[in-house]
Amino acid sequence: MPDFPIIDSHVHLYDVEKLSYPWLANVPRINRSYGLADFDAARGPVEVEALVFAEVWVGPGLHLDEAAWVQGLADRDPRLQGMIAHLPLELGPDVVRGDLEQLLQHPTLRGIRRLIEIELDPRFCLEPGFLAALKLLPRHDLVFDICVKHWCLPFAVELAQRCPDVTFVLDHLGKPGIKHGMWQPWADLMKELGRLPNVICKVSGVITEADHAHWQKAEVVPYLRHAIECFGFDRLMYGSDWTVSELTHPYPEWVRILDEVMDGTSEAERRQLYRETARRVYRLQG
């Protein structure tokens, strides 16, 4: 375990009594409310100094309510320093500007995520309206968390190329096809993304791309090493993807795997992964 407190850049919290999450019906194992007390119970011996909330795909029209709920949690617990909120960018800048102004009232807002992986045609993210709305973010110092499956990575590359002023955080290493042993074209596309200076990679949500019941550490490690090679530690940040991670492994197990992968690295490199990149990109305290 790290001998210093870490920053978790990707945590999901939700209250099924207050908000609607239709996708949870398909994952009964985590279909209940999860708050910060549950997070503390799950993290075990891992000392987490700060965390960033990532939107949880609430029901249609509830994204502003979700953001307000999360800000309420942050008001009561200073560890919750950042929020990545949902914004329907595909509606275009004129429509989403009002929602964005409301989101900006929350002090913890650090970025926007509009899930791309859930759409049958991911090319929607390259439509003029989406791009124009996306380009609103830099003027407010907001990043865009890009969540795609490996087959959508070509669109992620083009999106980052067409919006060089936007800082992109690639969630979950682009969700490689670990379960089926897929390496290419994921590996080459990660190299392309690594060459783009406006792209950061989040080291999170990887084990859930393997077989949930029978995953092996040896399957996961090559993908982690490749991400390190493509991005370097100053453009990698740790994330747990908790609560989704509960489907495959306990919270400390992910940290143990990363510790093994980083065996032989410097303390400065470990601090970059576990703290400094997230602190810099999401403008966190400390």
- Classify the helix fraction into a percent range: 25-40%
CATH architecture type:
Alpha-Beta Barrel
By secondary-structure content and strand pairing, the structural class works out as alpha/beta
**3D shape:** globular
Work out the number of β strands. Answer: 8
Q: Return residue spans where pLDDT drops below 50 for at least 5 consecutive residues.
A: none
For the record, the count of structural domains works out to 1
What is the H-and-E element order? Answer: EHEHEHEHEHEHEHEHH
Strand content: 5-15%
How many helices? The count is 9
Fourth CATH level, the homologous superfamily: Metal-dependent hydrolases
Average of per-residue pLDDT values: 97
